[in-house]
Amino acid sequence: MLIKANSPPEIRDYATSLYLSTGKIYDRTELVKDILRQLEINYENLNKSNDFKSVFERWKKRCKMLGKKIKVIQGGKEITGKAIDVDDMGFLLLEDDNSRIIKLSSGDVTVLK
Predict the structure, then answer these.
(1) Contact 18, 26 (CB under 8 A)
(2) I need a labelling partner for 88 at 20 to 30 A (CA). Which of 20, 36, 53, 103 fits?
(3) Residue 13 and residue 4 in contact, taking contact as beta carbons nearer than 8 Å
(4) CB under 8 Å to 103, separation ≥6 — which residues?
(5) Average pLDDT, whole number, for the chain?
(6) What is the pLDDT confidence band of residue 20, given thresholds at 50, 70 and 90?
(7) Is a pLDDT exceeding 80 seen at residue 106?
(8) What distance in Å separates the CA atoms of residue 18 and residue 31, rounded to the nearest whole number?
(9) 94 near 86, Cβ under 8 Å?
(10) Which residues contact residue 102 at a Cβ distance below 8 angstroms, ignoring those fewer than 6 apart?
């Protein structure tokens, strides 16, 4: 069970847990089973329909960083800007402070306040 006071100082402001979010204690084994069950259902539905676009659109709607200022560390380089979209290939589109659009495929992302 994560309690913020027990978190390392560098993540204390951002760290969370299911307990902190819901006030409930979850059985980890049952939680993993439920996640895997749902993953299997979604995978089977995707295989039947071959409709990746709808899965992708649902994922994008849940992406909490879109529209927000972010910092990305990629290969030792820091990039800041606004997360504006995710393209059809899954690249995060970031608009930097010079209004350039940068396509990112990986990196350590932090949503800035």
Answers:
(1) yes
(2) 36
(3) no
(4) 87, 91, 92, 93
(5) 88
(6) confident
(7) yes
(8) 11
(9) no
(10) 79, 81, 93, 94, 95, 96
Specify the higher pLDDT residue, 90 or 83. 83
Residues 58 and 101: beta-carbon distance below 8 Å:
no
- Asked if residues 102 and 91 have their Cβ atoms less than 8 Å apart, the reply is no
Phi-psi region of 31 (alpha: psi -120 to 50; beta: other; left: phi over 0): alpha
Please give the angle made by the CA atoms of 79, 103 and 68, to the nearest 5 degrees. Answer: 60
Split at pLDDT 50, 70, 90, the class of 1 is: low
